[in-house]
Design a protein that fits this description.
Involved in the lipid remodeling steps of GPI-anchor maturation. It is found in: Golgi apparatus membrane. This is Post-GPI attachment to proteins factor 3. Its main location: Golgi. The chain has helices at about 1-20, 30-40, 65-70, 75-95, 115-145, 160-180, 185-210, 215-240, 245-265, 275-290, 305-340; strands at about 45, 45-50. With about 350 residues, it is mainly α. Strand 1 and strand 2 form a beta hairpin. The longest helix is centred in the last third of the chain and has 39 residues, at about 305-340. It is elongated, with a radius of gyration of 24 Å.
Length: about 350
Amino acid sequence: MVDRLWTVLLLVLSCIVSFSYASLGDKDPSYRACVGECEVSGCVGKLCFPQCNSSSNVGPWYTQEPLYLQWQKWGCQGDCRYHCMVNREKERETLGQPPLKYHGKWPFKRLLGIQEPASVAFSVLNLAMHFYGWLSFFITLYYKLPLKQDKTAYYEYVGLWHIYGFLSMNSWFWSVVFHSRDVDITERLDYSSAIAVIGFSLIVSILRTFDIRVEATRVMVSAPILAFVTTHILYINFYKLDYGWNMIVCVAMGVAQLLLWARWAAVSRHPSNWKLWVVVIASGLAMLLEIYDFPPYEGYFDAHSIWHAATIPLTVLWWSFIRDDAEFRTSSLLKKSKTKAK
């Protein structure tokens, strides 16, 4: 039964992604005519864009605008598409028609040149929470817990969580950039960094839940997953950015690690099991936001941005569990060493 539900879930996700990028909005004749006319005339109604007939970016670097000013400008095609979309959506609203996606995205309202302001804001908060979580983990290990004689931590998974922290912060950084400006390079960097942290999280979940501490065994377990993740990143960057396949890979690895943590929470006697259960159940529910894709409320808050918001408290709780795990393992190891000494 579980296998059947899992198969249906993957098929639904694949279909959703396919429909997302086969957008109806950019196929709309009125929209296409507006964009075509704008790219020639440089105007949408009474609003004109000097960059459509400008060569201001040609010439030595010192004659061009600063990068922070260029970032807020979208160029001729970007501005034409945006304002044609805005006008077309106003027309559809007056006719009582629902919003459409344009070029794979809902009609978001820009703010200070930012394409998806809510997703950017929540991505920044996720980045901050991961930095705070990792920093508090570092302080707990090296300043609050006992250390070995060589000043290293007793906790056997310290290196893995450090790598996880840096990969997570890197992923949320590129999420901020991508949702600020969706272009080919930012899209690929965002997808690649997300795949990297999901793949490494799967490795950590296997090593921790099965309590694998022997280095050779860790390498044997990690190598196939690292090889697959690396191959997938190369595939989407240099062969084909297949959105449906990428979603299936992400969901498969994400669900796999949630099931591993849930199994471990059920059989172990960890004092912070309740935090694991909250994270596992809430993360599973949050994934439904990626399935139930709805247009942005007031032009800002869509399902994806709310998913970003939902992960903020989960990140705080997750790093809290990691700190608790470090304290629990350190305490257990110290008790064992004292027992042996007697």
